[in-house]
Design a protein that fits this description.
- The protein is α+β, with helices and mostly antiparallel strands.
- The protein is 29% helix and 24% strand.
- Bound molecules: zinc ion (2 copies).
- One zinc ion binds next to strand 10.
């Protein structure tokens, strides 16, 4: 169900005149009242409207308990997202907002970040020293297996503060400015170490390598923003396996695809991407693949049982 469906349902409910509508008995987050099976929370939207006055990035929780039931999910970006998918999109948008903020720095001529050499700090009113600082440093003589560079994170001893509202505002603003800088240091570190993650593969000379399962022609190399310290990362993709389930009516065909992939800009390592039709793909880690295999085996076993039952005679 999409946001627009949810909107029309909500408008429908607004049009009804049920004087003593009881709150939802199923979900505490649900804003619907009275008899209903389509559950929706109130929309949350970004506080900044766009130039047309339209709200930006509205989102809410939706669920259905009637026909076509589905568990709670986040309705956002014209998609129904799981909790994990929502967090992934939020992380992507955080990175995007850093890039947008960097455009402002270009406009007013601020020097780009130098995350490889700069030390970034957060202070608060009344502290004698930074609450938190971070800095990339290189090890002169790393031991085998030890990374050649790290990010040092430290605070000044006894740097504490008692804040009023204005002081809390100032600290929040400081932390918000600090986060994109820490991310830039993270990306710089990943570039220096020649990897975005533990899951990356490099040849011994440091050039990008590939997994044995890679469909190398399909793997894509991306550049980190120069302002984030530059460097590159690879999105690895394997060969896809697809099956089409059919009852003889091509319009009803259900296509299931599965493929291995690994995005070096994430730390999660290779994942199996499993998609049904044009629904959003699931990104499954090792544990998720184990669970899925067990579920599909249970389904296969149930299908075998049903197949056997189809041949049995009806009892008189
Ligand atoms: Zn409800
Ligand atoms: Zn590859």
């Amino acid at each position: 169900m999409s946001i627009s469906d949810a909107t029309s349902t909500r408008q429908l409910n607004l049009g009804q005149t049920e004087p003593a509508a009881a709150p939802c008995g199923t979900y505490t987050w649900c804003a619907e009242t009275g008899q209903h099976t389509t559950h929706a929370s109130a929309y949350t939207e970004a506080p900044t409207p766009d130039g047309f006055g339209d709200c930006v990035l509205p989102a809410n929780i939706i669920a259905e308990t009637g026909a076509g039931a589905f568990a709670p999910c986040v309705g956002w970006l014209d998609l129904d997202l799981t909790a994990e998918q929502t967090r992934a999109r939020v992380a992507e948008l955080h990175r995007h907002l850093d890039t947008v903020a960097a455009l402002a720095d270009i406009v007013d001529g601020q020097a780009p970040l130098e995350p490889g050499t700069e030390c970034y700090s957060v202070t608060a009113f009344g502290t004698n020293g930074a609450l938190i600082s971070s800095e990339v440093y290189r090890l002169d003589d790393p031991q085998p297996g030890e990374p050649a560079a790290r990010i040092a994170v430290f605070g000044q001893p006894e740097a504490d503060a008692d804040l009023d509202v204005a002081g809390a505002d100032q600290l929040v603003a400081g932390l918000e400015q600090f986060l994109p800088r820490l991310r830039a240091q993270r990306n710089h570190l990943a570039a220096v170490l020649g990897s975005g993650s533990g899951g990356s593969v490099r040849a011994t000379d440091g050039t990008p390598g590939h997994y044995s399962w890679c469909n190398v022609a399909g793997c894509r190399t991306y550049q980190y923003d120069e302002r984030d310290g530059g460097g590159s990362y690879v999105e690895h993709v394997g060969h896809e396996t697809a099956i089409t389930l059919s009852d003889g009516h091509p319009a009803d065909d259900i296509r299931i695809t599965a493929g291995l992939g690994a995005d070096e800009s994430y730390t999660s390592g290779p994942k199996v991407y499993l998609a049904v039709g044009d629904l959003d793909a699931l990104g499954l880690g090792a544990h998720g693949v184990d669970t899925t295999i067990a579920q599909l085996e249970a389904l296969t076993s149930a299908l075998r049982t049903m197949r056997g039952q189809m041949d049995s005679e009806a009892r008189p």
